[in-house]
Each structure stands twice: as C-alpha cells, then as structure tokens.
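Extended Data, panel c. Modelled sequence:
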Amino acid sequence: MGSEMCIRDRNKGECMMDQITIKDLEVYANHGLYKEEKVLGQKFLVSAVLYVDTKLAGVSDQMEFSVDYGKVCHTIKEILIENDFNLIECVAETVAKKLLLKFSLISKLEIEIKKPWAPIGLPLDYVSVKIKRGWHRAYILSLIHISEPTRRT
C-alpha cells in the first residue's frame, strides 16, 4: 500500500525500506493449550518491525506521514487481552493481520511472539514464533468486448 521508495541493497538486491521497531512489548495474557495457562495467565513479549516509508514524516515532522508506534503498541495489547488463543502462531497471525488492516502506511511487517514461561518442564529463555507478512501488488486485466449493433433488414 502506498508508494514506498525502494533503494536496492548492493549485495543482496533486496529492497531496503525504512523500519519502525518495537522490541519486547510486555503483555500479560491468558493464552495456551493448557487449562492452567488460560486460568493463571503468563507474560508474552511481542516484537514488531514495521516497514514504512518515513521520508515524508522525516522532512515534514508531521505524524500523519508515519505510523504512531504508541497506537500500534496499544493495538497489540488489546489483541492479546481481548482474545483467547491456544497457539502463539495464531497470536502472531492475528496481530499481523490487524496491524496491516488498521495502519495503512505499513507495507509489510515482522512479528515475533515470545513466551518466556512456556510450560515445558525444562530451563529456557523463551519459545517464540516469528512471521513476516505484507501487502502484495496485484494487477487485474479487464477485457471488455464491445460489438457493433447489428442492423435488421
């Protein structure tokens, strides 16, 4: 969506875009497969990389040309608090979809959901799911055949 400028990386040939990064937003919520997780709740850490063309915001100093990361954080928190998920995979998909639909300047994003208190009975820092989603440009070709009217004789 939008008309993001693409500067190609010399080595990889990939499009380099501006990024807004949110790292380890802490949300306490009740998700998981086990009854105890849904009853007791646990901490989730959400990170997001938002690909946005920030050039106009950078030169104009106007918020309307960027994505308000405060609103993004509150949206993420609302999604985690107001829904009931079994899998962090579903949390990630839902967060990605809702952010892309709500914030039109985001052309693509990366979402990571960390679950530091995953109940697996072994020591670990966290378990996480990381996904990349975005808009794709589609072209639609419409062919209309218009015939000349026939004359009746």
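The chain has a mean pLDDT of 89. This feature is highlighted in the accompanying rendering.
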